[in-house]
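Entry type: protein chain
Record version: 2
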Amino acid sequence: MANSADVLNHLLGHPPATPYPLAYNYLVPNLKGLRNLLKTTDEAKPNDTSISENGAKDLPTPPPSPKKQEDAEPAPITSTQDPNEMPSDTSGLHDPVKSGPSSASGNQTEISLFTAATEAFSKANTNCSIAESLERCKEIIALAKSNSIRVRGYVSVALGCPYEGPDVAPSKVAEITTSLLEMGADEVSVADTTGMGTAPRTRDLLKALSANGIANQDLALHFHDTYGQALVNAVVGLEHGIRTFDSSVGGLGGCPYSKGATGNVATEDLVYCLHSLGATTGIDVEKMAEIGSWISGELERPNDSRTGKAMLARLRT
C-alpha cells in the first residue's frame, strides 16, 4: 500500500477530474510536519511520476465523479440572503485567492491543527499542556499564513472529555477558540470528540462562543455520534446560525483516546436531515450513499450511515 508521502505526491501531481475544485486538508501535528508538507507541495508537479508503480496500483479506485454539465451552475454557498442555504464547497474554497498553494487543476491545499479543551486530553492526544499546544499552533499558523495556506483549528473534547467527564467549561472552549482565531486561523471547528454532547449543553456552548465575540461564520461544528445525538446537536447549531458542519461518509472515524467513541456523524445522514429542513447543500445524497458504501467496503468495515443503507436498499430493489 502507498505511504502518505506517495499519496500526497500523487494527489498533487495527478489531481482527479472533478466538476469543481477541491480543497485537500492535511493534519499538521507540528512545525516539522508543515515544513515537510511545503517541501512536498513544491516538489510535486502535474504529471509527476514520483509515486511507485506498486503504490499507484494499491490506491483504490473510487466511484466515477459526475460529469460536469456545460450549463451546470456552481454549487450554492453560504448566503446572507437565504438563511437556509448551506455551503456545499469544501471549507478551503470560500476564498480561493487566499487559499493557496494550488495545483494546475485549481485545487487548494489547507491545513488543520488540534488543541483540546481539557488538560488531560491535551496530554494524551498531543503530549503537552493546553498552553504548550497553543504555542505550537502559533508557530504553525504563522508559517502557514506566510505561505498563503488556509488554516483550520480544532478544539477537541468541547462537550465532554473521556478523562475529566462531560462537564467541560464552555468559557474555556470559548477562550481557546478566540486564541486560535486571534493567531490567524481562518476557521475553528469546535469538536464533540467523545459524542457526549447533548442539545442543552450544545446550546450553552454556542451562547458562550457568541458572548466571547466569536462570529458564526468563523465556526464549524464537529459531532461524533457515539450516543446518537449528533444530528440533534447539529440542528441546534443550525438554529443558532452555524452553517459549516463536519461529517464523514459512512460515519467513518473514531478516537483512540476515547473508548467506545464512534465516527463523525455520517455525511449521508446529515445531508438528508438538512434537506428535510429545507436547506440547500448542492449535494446529491444518493451519490453520497454510493460513496459511503464503496469506502466502507474498501476498508472492510460496516457502513454506519442509516440513511445511506436505506437509500441503497431502496434503489437496488
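Comment: Strands lie at 23-27, 108-116, 150-156, 187-192, 219-223, 245-246.
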